[in-house]
Write a structure and sequence with these properties.
The chain has 116 residues and is of the alpha+beta class. The chain contains 4 helices and 4 strands. The protein has helices at residues 8-26, 52-59, 63-76, 78-89, and strands at residues 32-38, 41-47, 93-101, 106-113. A 4-stranded antiparallel sheet has the order 1-2-4-3. Strand 1 and strand 2 (41-47) form a beta hairpin.
Length: 116
């Protein structure tokens, strides 16, 4: 399997596009975003940017509700996220997954990229 190659500029553009989508959809964007490439997997790390209501739920011991809501919302963004990554990289996204790490207020976006 050939390794996917992306420039630092492309990875930065992916991180910015994902961050902008999150901001538009959630009403608040992350405080920081960075994208990494490992073989054929693009990983975007988004730090911070949780809504006040989410912070309150976490503080009151209801992180499960935040996870459920974030997962549902991010499922709704599947097409938009995938289209942005494909537009920037010029490569097909085979699959997409999002995960939220609540203790550290981090969201991880994973994109499996088809080999050229």
């Amino acid at each position: 399997m050939p390794t996917v190659k992306l420039t630092g500029e492309e990875l930065s553009e992916v991180a910015n596009a994902v961050s902008k989508l999150m901001a538009n959809f959630f009403g608040r964007g992350p405080e920081g975003a960075k994208a990494y490439l490992n073989d054929d997997l693009v990983v975007v790390i988004l730090r911070g940017g949780f809504l006040d209501v989410e912070e309150t739920l976490i503080e009151r011991g209801r992180p499960d509700k935040v996870r459920d809501l974030r997962t549902t919302w991010e499922d709704e963004l599947d097409t938009e996220m995938t289209q942005q990554v494909e537009r920037i990289t010029g490569l097909k996204v085979l699959d997409y997954h999002s995960q939220v790490l609540l203790r550290e207020r981090v969201v991880v976006e994973l994109f499996l990229i088809a080999s050229p």
